[in-house]
Design goal:
Elements lengths: L1 E7 L11 H4 L4 H11 L3 E7 L3 H11 L5 E5 L8 H9 L4 E5 L21 E4 L4 H11 L2
Parallel strand pairs: 1-2, 1-3, 3-4, 4-5
Helix pairs in contact: 3-4
Length: 140
């Protein structure tokens, strides 16, 4: 069975109630059930944390165990050199994902320390951004 890890960073545990006009009104855990039903032959593991170091630990521990990682580092995308370095240091491909179109938002969101070392970036398709990333990992 092909295995994929989804890592969500800070404040993504508030999906469904945080800025619903930007992020929608669905909890990620509910959407995860949909993903698992759409990709029944794929082992999808989910991890969420608000702590930068835990994202780095999860990336390092995932190396060699998954065919790919989907990473929505939230606000750390724009601030964390350390997460970018962790992505660069591992061999498993990482796809950076954002629910909103970060390029149509505040200027500081246009900078990513992950994008230069990720396989690719998917942004602006709502929660469906995760499905698109899974499809890329399964059918490159």
């Amino acid at each position: 069975m092909k295995k994929i890890l989804i890592i969500n960073g800070p404040n993504l545990n508030l999906l469904g109630k945080r800025e619903t006009s930007v992020y929608g009104n669905k909890k990620f855990e509910d959407y995860l059930k949909t993903l698992k039903s759409v990709f029944p032959g794929t082992g999808i593991t989910y991890f969420q944390t608000n702590i930068e170091g835990e994202i780095i630990d999860a990336l390092q521990k995932a190396d060699g165990k998954y065919i790919g990682i989907i990473l929505n580092a939230g606000g750390y995308t724009h601030t964390s050199v350390a997460i970018g370095d962790a992505v660069k240091a591992i061999e498993v491909p990482v796809i950076e994902v954002h629910i909103s179109n970060v390029y149509s938002r505040e200027t500081f969101r246009h900078v990513s320390f992950i994008a230069p070392v990720a396989r690719g970036v998917i942004a602006g398709f709502g929660l469906d951004s995760y499905r698109l990333a899974i499809e890329n990992l399964l059918y490159p």
